Amino acid sequence: MHCIRDEDVTAHADLVLDWLAADPVRNTVAYTVISAAATGLMPCPDDALWLRVLADDGSLAGVAWRTPPHRLGLSFMSPAAAAAVADWCVRSEVDPPALTGSVLSGSAFIEAWTAAGRRSSQTRELRLYQLDAVTAPVGVPGHARLAGADDLELVVDWQAAFATELDAEGQPAESLRRRIEAGGLIWLWQDDGEPVASASRTPLAAGVSRIGFVYTPPSRRRRGYAGALVAAVSADTLAGGAKACCLFTDLANPTSNKIYQEVGYHPVMDAGEWSLR
């Protein structure tokens, strides 16, 4: 196994997207990040990392990426391919602050990383779920609607609260504004004339859309809003031609894992986040 760094994201996308599309759910993050960067939907810093892992026969065996200041990400790949990424980072003196990927790939990276004398610790245990058909909850007051320009301030505030609560990476206001203007990507659940929950989805990537930013303010929780909104957004996504929806959950939050399974999501893969410092 060996790694090749591509300097141009458009050329990189041409080389890896078809491979990622063969497993679009487990590679949902890799596909959406690379395609968004290649098409200009997502700003791409000059020092972004676009990496291909090649097997001994020259075939593609994995993809890794980083758009600073974010984590190094791994596509779903074999332990040997993930170890090759870690070895390349050490040899190339690439020192990412953190890592995200499947448990299979991430654990192999961490093993090779620490064997080279580097530090690491797991910071979050995640699970990837997939939905192919919706079981809509009943009896939840309100309805789903798309977020509009007038909702931007609310969405920015809720995204900041969401990121703080999860100790996760947030999205800048400009990115949220673009997503609202794109249409169909950020949703709100409205009850009695007031927004009470939010959710987002990615554009279709190889027929799959990923649900995220599921947030209900503390004062509005335990009323079924989040589950109802995720069900509504997922149903709309499938009706629009998606083959499947997917989402990640934090395994430390049993409530969210239970809610999503109730509307039709089933586990696909365990994943994680690791500090590399």
Q: Which tags fit this structure?
A:
Aminopeptidase; 277 residues; 2 domains; single chain; 36% helix; 8 helices; globular; 12 strands; alpha+beta; 12-stranded mixed β-sheet
How does this model look, in words?
This protein is an alpha+beta fold. The chain folds into two domains: 2-119, Aminopeptidase (3-Layer(aba) Sandwich); 131-271, Aminopeptidase (3-Layer(aba) Sandwich). 36% of the residues lie in helices and 29% in strands. It contains eight helices and twelve strands. The protein has helices spanning 9-21, 28-39, 79-91, 103-115, 152-166, 173-182, 225-239, 254-262, and strands at residues 2-5, 49-54, 60-66, 72-74, 98-102, 121-131, 143-146, 186-191, 194-201, 208-215, 244-250, 266-275. A twelve-stranded mixed sheet has the order 1-2-3-4-5-12-6-11-10-9-8-7, sandwiched between helices. α3 packs parallel to α4 (103-115). It starts with a strand and ends with a strand. The model has no long low-confidence stretch (mean pLDDT 94).
Topology:
Elements: E1 2-5, H1 9-21, H2 28-39, E2 49-54, E3 60-66, E4 72-74, H3 79-91, E5 98-102, H4 103-115, E6 121-131, E7 143-146, H5 152-166, H6 173-182, E8 186-191, E9 194-201, E10 208-215, H7 225-239, E11 244-250, H8 254-262, E12 266-275
Parallel strand pairs: 4-5, 10-11
Antiparallel strand pairs: 1-2, 2-3, 3-4, 5-12, 6-11, 6-12, 7-8, 8-9, 9-10
